[in-house]
Each structure stands twice: as structure tokens, then as C-alpha cells.
Amino acid sequence: IWHLQGPVVGGWYKILDQLILGTTKVVAVKKMVLDQGAFAPCFLGCFLAITGAMNGLSVEENWSKIQQDYTDALLTNYCIWPPVQIANFYFVPLKHRLAVVQCVAIVWNCYLSWKANRM
């Protein structure tokens, strides 16, 4: 699933730049709110569902695992990503945003892998 993350996130950043125009601090906050309010919850749910399926969980086991892990993972997401994304959207040009996110994602993906593979 990690090989899908780059193209999906990169495409999302292009969409955000088309939806919310400008480079002010207010624009950066608006992009972060949309990113963390819409994209992050969906992406996290998909990640947990795909990981559970790839680990051979039945539909019922996978749903139970998602219910167990989703809220905690989303709350942890909200501790890490909003400040990263505000800085990313304000200071970093679009063509370099994915690289910034991938640096932070090294730690985030380790956490998600641990969370998703705990039984």
C-alpha cells in the first residue's frame, strides 16, 4: 500500500491548490482543515481496511480491527499532521510538498504499521 501513497497524496495536493487559491497563512490553514477533515480520515480508513485484508482478516475481523484502531490512529494523526501541513502549505512550493510529507511519513508509517499489525 505504501507505493500508492505518493501518487495519491501528490494528486490530492494538486486538487487542493486548484480548490483553494493563494499563498497566505489563511489559505494554508484552509488547506490544512480540508486535508485533515476530509482526506486524512478517508485515507486512514482505507489504509486500515487494505492492511487488514492483506493480513488475511475476514470481513468481520477486519471491521472489528478498524473499529478498535481507527479513532486512536486518527487522534494521533491530529497531533502530528496539522502543524506539519500548515508549514508545508505555507512555506513549501507544490512541487516539493510531497517530499516534505514523505520525510515525516517515515515515522508516521512506522506507527501505522505497528497499529495495523497489532492483533
Describe this structure in words.
It contains 4 helices and no strands. The chain is mostly helical and 119 residues long. 18% of the residues are buried.
Average residue-wise pLDDT = 93
Strand content: under 5%
Order of helices and strands: HHHH
Number of strands: 0
Number of helices: 4
Tell me the span between the first and last alpha carbons: 19 Å
Could you list the spans in which at least 5 consecutive residues all have pLDDT below 50? none
- Secondary structure class reads mainly alpha
- Main β sheet profile: none
Oligomer: single chain
Radius of gyration: 15 Å
Describe the structure concisely.
The protein is mainly alpha-helical and 119 residues long. The chain has helices spanning 2-19, 25-54, 59-91, 94-117. 88% of the residues lie in helices and 0% in strands.
Which short descriptors sum up this protein?
transmembrane; mainly alpha; channel activity; 119 residues; Mitochondrial inner membrane protein Mpv17; transmembrane helix; membrane
